[in-house]
Amino acid sequence: MPGVIDCHSHVTLCTYDPLELMTTPLSERFFQTASMLHRTLAAGVTYVRDAGGADAGVRDSLIAGHIPGPRLAVSVVGLTRSEGHGDGALLGPGLEAPAAVTALGYPGRPQHVVQEPDGMRAAVRAVLRAGADWVNIFASGGIMSVRPGEPLPEFTASELAVVVSEAAAFGRGVMAHALGASAVGAAVSAGVRSIEHGIGLTEREAALMAQHGVTLVPTLSPYHELGHLAGTGHLPQWAADRAHATQAMLADTIAVARDAGVRIALGSDCRHRDRHGTNLAEITRLHRDGLSVSDALLAATANGARLCGISESVGRIAPRYEFDAILLDEDPGDLSLFERPDSVTGVFLGGVPVVPHTRLPAAMTAQIRDAVRPSLVCDPAGDLPAANPAAP
């Protein structure tokens, strides 16, 4: 089948622990990113739209073949407001945290907190100047935002319109983190290309999304994981209540979007070392929460390609398309095999068997390896690319 397109992941993040993020050297975090990219490609994901963290240098290193990994589109940082979702503030000691708490910080990296009240245009331009392929805006709070209660909209309709118009002037689309009907409706009306998460949308917002051709990227897996965590006693009660309520809304969100004719694309929202490489489990989640087998597979391939503007070159196996493909040794059937880490037994990226299947002729594998950079070929059993000293 075609290689999987993950429209929402965070390839630079490998822990939920803010203390680990603050104490890990910057250089080590970049090497961790290389490991996450390797795992993602070996799992069968051949294209990723990163929702914040990866910058143009990570994308261009993949293109140059310095490290193995999928094709990558970047948003650099997700734009938020002060006291908003992901602003990074350390409430315990009352300190303003550096941006590196949630995204790698280094000279030249744009600020992710929009300077109010009229700094939106400058913030978008800073992200675009940093090489972003997409602009990511937090149109609402998140499930784990620190303020108890329902996630609230973060920006006005006019501010969201500025984001879309400024991005469009540079030929870029906008992806909007949005939970709740109000935030979804405002983002869609402003002209965003996709709604990330979208929990709580109603028939009205779904109809608006379908009318404007806006794609939903529901990222189901992390919400199911939060729902499970809420039952362990590790979350404060308000967060546990919100996690349980959100988990109960997932199937309804998918049903509302599906019935309105909204296009749905896969997004794993991976942000932990134990989850990178398990991206394809989201296919199973999409099916269990309401999509048919065929619609779940389309969400993982053709729909993602259309959203990312690459449907003329990837997303299907056909003449004149890039041969990005994965091999399975069994019929996916009810799609449950995608929850197993060994379900993908071969991966092609641009015609190169980056994870060679055991039945691929050895002579063919050797010939291809001799013709490409060694870093393009993965060792599926480890975290490092397979060595090939003889390759040019």
Automatic annotation (TrEMBL):
Hydrolase as UniProt keyword: yes
Domain of life: Bacteria
Matching InterPro entries: Amidohydro-rel (IPR006680), Metal-dep_hydrolase_composite (IPR011059), Metal_Hydrolase (IPR032466), Metallo-dep_Hydrolase (IPR051781)
Residues annotated as domain Amidohydrolase-related: 1-352
GO MF: hydrolase activity, acting on carbon-nitrogen (but not peptide) bonds
Record has Hydrolase as a keyword: yes
One protein family per Pfam: Amidohydro_1
Keywords associated with the record: Hydrolase
Protein name: Amidohydrolase
